[in-house]
Amino acid sequence: MKTIIKSIRNVVLPIITTVAIAAFTTSCKKGAQPMPTVPTTTNVAPQDESIKTISLIGLRVDSGFCYKIGYDLTEIGDSNTSPTVSKLRLFENGVELGPAHSNHNDIRNFGLGQFSHWGNTLYFSTSDNSDPLKNGRKYTYSMK
């Protein structure tokens, strides 16, 4: 009986402790951002003339899941002094992506449809982190 108790104490308890510590430190990393959740409701692009198609000519990989393209839009994008001024809404095959105004590192690291209209540049990720040049989807935007 003493050998069983020693085995449990010497083998099982260190494993449980290691797993608990790993789970705790993973969820409490300084500066860690939670993974974006997939929205339960789907916003669909309005069917009117305010929707414009994004030409993917000039699209470049920024880093990770982030792609960027320069655009000369009529409305100003976000900036350091106005980080949420952009009214751009981005759609993938008519389904709204987001959240907008996302941190560029979050777009790079997590993707999942996050985007940022920063100055005259659109930084974005696809809904499933696929390559927008290869996935065959249509990307559109509205400034409403």
Kindly provide the radius of gyration, computed on alpha-carbon positions and rounded to a whole number of angstroms: 22 Å
Principal-axis shape equals globular
Strand order of the largest sheet: 1-8-4-5
Individual helix count: 2
Number of strands: 8
Characterize the main sheet.
4 strands, antiparallel
Which whole number gives the mean pLDDT?
81
Order of helices and strands: HEEEEEHEEE
* Percent range of helical residues: 10-25%
Report how far the terminal alpha carbons are from each other.
72 Å
pLDDT below 50 for ≥5 consecutive residues: which ranges? 22-33, 37-41
Strand content: 15-25%
- Derived structural class: alpha+beta
Task: Describe the protein's architecture and organization.
The chain is of the alpha+beta class and 144 residues long. Helices cover 22% and strands 20% of the residues. It has 2 helices and 8 strands, in the order αβββββαβββ. It has helices at residues 2-27, 104-109; strands at residues 52-53, 60-63, 66-70, 89-92, 95-96, 115-118, 121-124, 139-142. The strands form 2 sheets. A 4-stranded antiparallel beta sheet has the order 1-8-4-5, with no helix packed on it. The chain has a 4-stranded antiparallel beta sheet with strand order 2-3-7-6. The longest helix is centred in the N-terminal third of the chain and has 26 residues, at 2-27. 21% of the residues are buried. The model is unreliable at 22-33 and 37-41 (pLDDT under 50).
